[in-house]
TrEMBL record:
<dbReference type="InterPro" id="IPR002563">
    <property type="entry name" value="Flavin_Rdtase-like_dom"/>
</dbReference>
<protein>
    <submittedName>
        <fullName>Flavin reductase (DIM6/NTAB) family NADH-FMN oxidoreductase RutF</fullName>
    </submittedName>
</protein>
<feature type="domain" description="Flavin reductase like">
    <location>
        <begin position="30"/>
        <end position="178"/>
    </location>
</feature>
<comment type="similarity">
    <text>Belongs to the flavoredoxin family.</text>
</comment>
<dbReference type="Pfam" id="PF01613">
    <property type="entry name" value="Flavin_Reduct"/>
</dbReference>
<keyword id="KW-0285">Flavoprotein</keyword>
<dbReference type="InterPro" id="IPR012349">
    <property type="entry name" value="Split_barrel_FMN-bd"/>
</dbReference>
<dbReference type="GO" id="GO:0010181">
    <property type="term" value="F:FMN binding"/>
</dbReference>
<keyword id="KW-0288">FMN</keyword>
<dbReference type="GO" id="GO:0016646">
    <property type="term" value="F:oxidoreductase activity, acting on the CH-NH group of donors, NAD or NADP as acceptor"/>
</dbReference>
Length: 209
């Protein structure tokens, strides 16, 4: 049985009830780091393209492969996904960080963020929404469901196609060809206005029973 040790170094304790939702959310965004960015591409009913970053993003199922991003409030991305049932997720590398930030601007649905950020569109293989042509890896997804949670909406999407730039792929000793983390060079969201790069990468084999 593990022993209880004194608090060293000292901690500052924060009560969520005392802070309130807004300040607690700011604190969490600075603690839950790094967060991968889902750069979500969608199209509206009239075919207008939309591109926006979402940093509440992860994989939630392997069989079938399901990813999730959360939209705070009902934004263009959510409305388009609900209307068409499709979206893309383009990986954001260091070279695309500034353009990604540009697409977070609070503009109207008539604005094409690809054009706003000077990004070239690339046709997807399976779904209608376009991909970011310069992205090193893109997921093409179909909508599974939208789950309202608090002031957010969790968008669950089934990954139906993955496109990875060839120069990021490496074949390992077991014969598996997968992206190399350093070659992908992803960026992540931190707290405040801070972003982060991958940094050091280390491997640890999983324990066996």
């Amino acid at each position: 049985m593990s022993e209880t040790t004194p608090r060293d170094p000292a901690r500052t304790e924060f009560s969520a009830a005392d802070l309130g939702d807004a300040e607690t959310a700011l604190l969490l965004k600075s603690v839950l780091i790094p967060r991968p960015i889902a750069w979500v591409g969608t199209v509206a009913d009239d075919g207008a393209a939309n591109l926006a970053p979402h940093s509440f993003f992860t994989m939630v199922s392997g069989a079938p492969p399901i990813v999730m991003f959360s939209s705070t409030g009902r934004k263009d991305t959510l409305r388009n996904v609900e209307a068409t049932g499709q979206f893309t997720v383009s990986l954001v590398d260091r070279a695309l960080a500034e353009a990604c930030n540009t697409t977070s601007a609070p503009v109207g649905p008539e604005v094409d963020e690809f054009v706003l950020a000077g990004l070239e569109k690339e046709a997807s293989a399976v779904v209608a929404p376009p991909r970011v042509a310069a992205s090193p890896a893109v997921l093409e997804c179909t909508l599974e469901r939208v789950v309202p949670v608090g002031d957010g909406h969790c968008v669950l999407g089934r990954v139906v196609h993955v496109a990875v730039r060839e120069d990021t792929l490496v074949t390992d000793a077991r014969g598996r060809t997968l992206p190399d983390p350093a070659r992908l060079d992803p960026v992540a969201r931190l707290g405040r206005d801070e972003w982060g790069t991958l940094g050091d990468v280390f491997a640890q084999g999983r324990p066996r029973a």
